[in-house]
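Let's inspect one such protein example.
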Amino acid sequence: MAPSLLAADFARLIDDVSKVEAAGCEILHLDIMDGHFVPNISFGVPVIEKLRPVSKMFFDTHLMITDPIKYAEPFVKAGSDLLTFHIEVTNEPRRVIEHIRSLGANVAVCLNPDTPPAAIESIVSEVDMVLVMSVWPGFGGQKFMPSAVDKLRQVRAMLRPDQRLEVDGGIAPATIADCARAGADTLVAGSAVFGQPDPAGAMHELQRLAEAACR
């Protein structure tokens, strides 16, 4: 499970983050929006800088931004462990990958709902993870797109065992099992975790459903 910080209570951010970390969460998903590639603006480097000293979780940072090369270094210096860029923003994905790696971070590539897996075929072997969007990026609380399940299967077939497959958007008790069965091993959930009265309990239930689907 990778709870999405975007759905947390920003007035009590450290409290929310501490709840899931104390419950065993190892990955925190950070949605960065620039108001250009996506229509909304979320948060940026200063938030990550403040969270890094108080959390040992792996910071999985999703750059929903037009120019990942320009901003990669500030996010890595702030404490991001992995940077995900969108294949849709560049004609030179290998250059983006090499730049992020040169900063000492892991790297992932993301596919929008209308982008086919073939778009990453030439570079898929060079990333640590692929992120499949099951909603349109830029807005929280959207309904899960069932077409993402088949895309997850296709992408999983392209990956080595050591490469991760992440899914983001509309992940909830009703959708998580299908995603896990399709090969997703990193599951981003926002309102289904932080939007619940008991975030830790909600996270554990989602984890249980995912694991049960893979037995």
User: Anything to note?
Assistant: The chain has one domain: 2-213. The two ends are 17 Å apart (CA to CA). Residues 87 and 110 are 6 Å apart (CA to CA).
